[in-house]
Amino acid sequence: MKKFTLFVALVAMFGVVSSASDFQLSGVARNQAPLKKQCSLSQRAEKSGNNAMALKKAAKRAPVGTVISDAPAGAVFDNMYANSDAYGLGWGDIYYQEVDGGLGGVDVADDGFVYVKAPISQAYVWGLGSPWIKCEKQADDVVVMHLPQLYCIDGGDPYYVQRLVPDASGESFVVDKSTQDVKFTWKDNQLTQVDNCLVGLCDASGEWFYMGDYNIKYTVNPDKPVAKPADAKKGLSRMEYKDDPTDLTSEAFTMVNVFSAGDKVYVDHMESGLPDAVVEANVSADGKTWTVPTQQYLGVDEDYNSHVYVLTGNAKVVGTGTSAYFNYDKTASISMAVDAAGNAAAEYPASLVVNCGRNNLYIISDVVAPRFLAQEDKAMTPADPVFTAADIRESTNFNVVKFVIPTVDVDGNDLNVNDLYYNVYYNDAPYVFTPEVFVGLTEPMTDIPYAFSDSNYDIFMSTSTNKATIYFYDKGYEKIGVQSIYRGGGEEHRSNVVWVKKTPTGISDVNADTRVVKNVNYYNVAGQKISEPASGMCIKCTEYADGSMKAEKVVK
């Protein structure tokens, strides 16, 4: 089923928090990689049909207050650069996150109040919105956040932002009974938390809901994305790089555009959420060297709730066997040698790192020892999608539809996936995905880019398997078809439409778990894999033959 991948990803990335602080809870795992936004809590529970996580739920009661989803009229500083120490809720348990380059905002409103945007940074993981919290302006640049205030409503359950302090055990947070005011300063366009407390999320009964931030600071980000000249000459390149820390001969690739303009070159598609953003390299006078400076700003990626940069560094392999991974020593730049054909290559360990923030390593993707090999941009006919009746799982409210979009043409040659799209046919016409039905969209879509995922994850692609998954709500069809579209070489070519007719057997119950179990693994609360359930709580991760995953708490 859908969206059981978050905790599984987290357990591979966690280490135990080691530095001391009054607000660092004992036994809490530290997340060392950025987390992408998922569905809201209620949407996940509804779509998965699984309640094994036993998430805390708020007591059902009428919400007090109003969620301020839009900034009131005033001087608005949006997409500020946020730093904080934060806690968030994963699939297994809470995690600690050192936030660098998150997204925040301040509104000095015309009504005389100051509003602070999204002070609970990790709420974005669960799609709980980015509300504005009202603060009172006081003397000496002090603003006071009077709490509790309504933060969001999820599945009819209200959640509030409150001032929290550690409980007596040091293992959780509780509402501060002494005061519910949190002081900040707003000076020189910088917001800084003054009070030593957690700005946390609580349910309607006042119980902490595993999310919150302290040491909050918002600053205006002075960095601007690189702008390539309008007359830059465009060329297609195959970007090859090392992808396996246990085998430095193993390589992967992706297709990018390289633009040339005088003594500069520009490369796009470094980050899937910002495909048109470019990284700049300086070309030497003799044309034989590219130099790529570090800390190049790509822009804002709301899926990661972050300002995204490309950093440069030297790769190093940490660990051995299945636990090995690439880490990096940051550098001021990397150099790439250019051959007579115009191909550029960096020698290992020189690497490019797509990163959340400019300071700490929170890596979205990495390109170890990149090579840019010029390619001919050709018109090609894409191979047919792989789609059978077994790829449709029927249920009461929606059908789960899966299919493979091959990334090769009919002759097996690699396609530029940046020019690859697909249509879904509903009966005999291409289906129009609308925001009214697919709430994670902002506009209607018919041609779906190969790697596209909507913000609600009703449509998403696994680029490692080329398999798309769609939660399909319009069920009045007689047949569904899928067609690939390739727009390379200035032409558009389409595959055949692969059809699946509706089965006459009716609807199966999505909650009836009849899947074949492939693997079962156990993890402790620190995210470490263990051979069998230990005393206390651990996480059981079940992988099924259909590729779905289930994570659940086990107490022994």
Give structural notes.
With 556 residues, this protein is mainly β. It has two helices and 40 strands. The protein has an eight-stranded antiparallel barrel. An eight-stranded antiparallel β-barrel has the order 15-16-17-18-19-23-24-26. Strands 29, 30, 31, 34, 35 and 36 form a six-stranded antiparallel β-sheet that branches. The longest helix has 8 residues, at 41-48. It starts with 5 loop residues before the first helix and ends with a strand. Mean pLDDT is 87; it is low at 1-20, 49-54 and 505-514.
Reported for the largest beta sheet, the result is:
8 strands, antiparallel, barrel
The count of DSSP E runs of length 2 or more, i.e. the number of strands, is: 40
The rough form would be described as globular
Which structural class best describes the helix and strand composition? mainly beta
Given as residue ranges, the uncertain stretches (5+ residues, pLDDT < 50) are 1-20, 49-54, 505-514
For this structure, the quaternary state is: single chain
- Strand % is over 45%
